[in-house]
Amino acid sequence: MRIGVPKERKADEYRVSLTPEGVAVLAAGGHRVLVESGAGEGAGFDDADYRTAGAQLVDRDRVWRTDLVVKVKEPVAEELPLLDGQLLFTYLHLAGAAPTLTRALMDSGTAAIAYETVEDTLGKLPLLAPMSAVAGNMAIIMGAYHLARPAGGRGLLPGSLFDRSFGKVVVIGDGVVGRHSARAAARLGADTLVLGRGRVSQAELADFIQAKFQLQLSTPESVAREIADADLVVGAALVRGARAPWVVSAAMIQAMPPGAVIVDVSIDQGGCVETSRPTTHHDPVFAHHGVIHYCVANMPGAYPRLSTLALTEATLPYVQRLAGQGLDALRTDAGFAKGVNVIDGKIACRPVAEALGFADDYAPWP
After folding, report:
1. Hey, where are the domains in the chain?
2. What's the CATH architecture for 131-301?
C-alpha cells in the first residue's frame, strides 16, 4: 500500500505522524512510504533520516495522492481540497465544533479513522493515552509558569519549601490526563485534589501518584467549592467521541481568585470550561473574570520529539494493519472499528453526529 506522511500545518504543530524507524518498519513490510519534504524537521528528524529509512520524499500534493494518509492533527482548510477518498488516520476531534471538516470528509468519500476513539480489548483508548499523558504533565508546568506575576498570575509557585506545601491544585478528571496532572502537582509538593467520577479508587491513584493527594467525587457542588480558592485548576473531563461537558461554569470562574490559572486540556473536544476558547502556543492564554485561561488545542505539539516517539509507538501496529488489510482490519476488530468517524459519506460515530447536529447523516459501520 502507498502511505503518505504529510507535514503538519496546524498552527504551532511540530509533531510528525511517523518516526524514521516507523517508516523503516513499514518499508520492510513491502509498503511504499511517501513523506513530505520537511515533515519531520520540527521533531528533529530530517529528510535524510526518512530517505535512509526507505521513504520517498515528495511535495504536499503528492503525499496526499496515496491510499492511506497518516497524520497527527485534523486536516486544516488548505488541505480539504486534497481529500479524495483516501483512508485517513489521525486525531480528528470532530465533536469539538468541526462541521466544515466533517462535511468535507463526507463529501470527499474519505474513510476517516480517529485515533481518539479507537479502543483496545479492555475498552481503553490506547492511541489517545500517550498524548493525554504528555498533556497532563504539561498542564502543571504551563499552569505554574502562568501563575508567575510577570506572566499575569497571582504570583504563587505550586510546590513545597522546607516541607511546607504552597499552592492548591485542583484536577477535574481521573483519566490519563487527570492522573498525570495530579502526579506532577503532588510530587512538586502542592496541595493536590483530584475530583473524579469514581472510575479510579484512592488506592489505585495512590499507587500511581506516589505522593500526598486527596480524592473527592466530582459534582457541580464539589467543583464550585474546591476551585473557589484554587491557584491552579486542570480541566480534564472527557466523554469519548463527544463534545466535552461544561463542568466549570462562568459563575465558578468569577468566584476564583484573581490571577489564578485554569488549564483546559479538554479544549480539543470543545473544552470543559464555559469560558474557554481555543488558543495557540504563540498566544496561549487570555484572562476572563481575572482568571488566566490556558486553552492550547494541541498541547503536546510543544514537545514534538517526545510526542512523536510516543505516538509512533502507539499507532504503528494499527498503521501496519491498515496498510496490510485496509478496512478489513477494522471489520475483524470491534475496538479498532470504533475509530471510524466518517465513511461512505456518512458519520459512523454517533456522539460526533449528535454533537454537530448531523443526526440525519449518521449510519453505523460496519
Report:
1. 2-118+303-361, 131-301
2. 3-Layer(aba) Sandwich (3.40)
Q: Name, in order, each residue with C-beta under 8 angstroms of 74's C-beta and a sequence gap of 6 or more.
A: 10, 90, 91, 92, 93, 94, 98, 101
Residues 219-254 have pLDDT tens digits of 999 999 999 999 999 999 988 888 899 999 999 999
φ, ψ of residue 88 to 5 degrees: the values are -120, 125
Catalytic residue among 31, 93, 180, 293: 93
> What is d(CA 101, CA 107) in angstroms, rounded to the nearest whole number?
10
Catalytic (active site) residue 268: yes
Calculate mean pLDDT across residues 25-32. Answer: 98
User: What is the reported pTM?
Assistant: 0.93
Grouping H, G, I as helix, E, B as strand and the rest as coil, residue 273 is strand
Of 174, 191, 264, 268, which is the active-site residue? 268
Q: Indicate if 131-301 has the same CATH topology as 2-118+303-361.
A: yes
For the 2-118+303-361 domain, the top CATH level (class) is alpha beta
Please report the sign of the dihedral spanned by the C-alpha atoms of residue 145, residue 223, residue 212, residue 138: negative
